[in-house]
Amino acid sequence: MVQLVPFAVPIEGDKTLLVWELSSGPTPEALQLSLHSLFTVFSQFGLLYSVRLFPNAAVGSPGFSAIIKFYSARDAHRAQKPCDQKQLFHTSPVKVRLGTRRKAVHHNTLAVNSSRCQKLANYIFVFHEWSKSIIKLQDLSNLEERENEDIVTPLQKQSLKFFCSLEVVLPSHECRSPGVGMAEEPLDKLEEDPLSFLMRRKVTQKLAIQKAMTDAFQKLLIVVLESGKTAVAYRSCAEVTDARTEEELQDLIQVSYFSCQPCGQREQECLSDFSFEEEEFRLPELD
After folding, report:
1. Which of 80, 190, 205, 231 has a beta carbon 3.0–4.6 Å from 223's, enabling a disulfide?
2. Rounded Cα gap, residues 116 and 265, in angstroms
């Protein structure tokens, strides 16, 4: 079966595993150990997007449950049966089920950030099989020079702004994907320290490059064949829906309790859209 892996947050049920009947100590150290153990066990089957651990509802039995997201549905399917009803790192068996969406998802695709894009590309391809090439990095800052050095000019409306244009290149697949990004950093006060100003300028440049990389990767679609071989499909801007980055998503509910994500970023999603395939499982309502 052919698998399509976009550079986007995996929201499909067939890429999600739900694990319950987990036990853990009450201390943060014990919870972090459980997260690490879950990540170690399930990452053997494929690249993980996130691992989340949260307590059972107060009316239920004590313990924890977990939501584990893969980038690939095939990897999630491969992990489900070998881990279901197994002890894993516990003294008692745990239950593992594939998640399914109860209703259609209406929000647009959520693009993963540039660091996640690079990690996914490095996992699917050998590192030297892809590269990025910066075409243009332009300073669009609206900083005005002061005519009189004795007059302090307020910088409330001034900002650092950079535009970046680049290409993600995959020579072995004969594919080039262009991307653009814009980053702006407002200056709320006078930067008296030249070093501090230069550091802020460098951060803004880096952010513009990261946004351009995310834009370029959104136009690529990884095709994984049943044999394990991969191909890359390029989608034009018209074929890519209005993808938002993780940082731009503000209208979904944050429900995680403890999380372990490879790149340190936190996701937001409506977990009420998920159910179990074989057994109904009610997710806890968190304040």
Report:
1. 231
2. 9
Question: What phi, psi does 155 have (nearest 5°)?
Answer: -110, 20
Q: pLDDT by residue (tens digit) across 65-111?
A: 899 999 999 999 999 999 999 988 877 898 999 987 644 455 567 88
Task: State the amino acid at position 193 in one-letter form.
Answer: D
User: Which residue type, as a one-letter code, is found at position 192?
Assistant: E
Tokens at 266, concatenated? 């936190």
Q: What are the pLDDT digits (tens) for 66-78?
A: 999 999 999 999 9
Query: Model pTM greater than 0.85?
Result: no
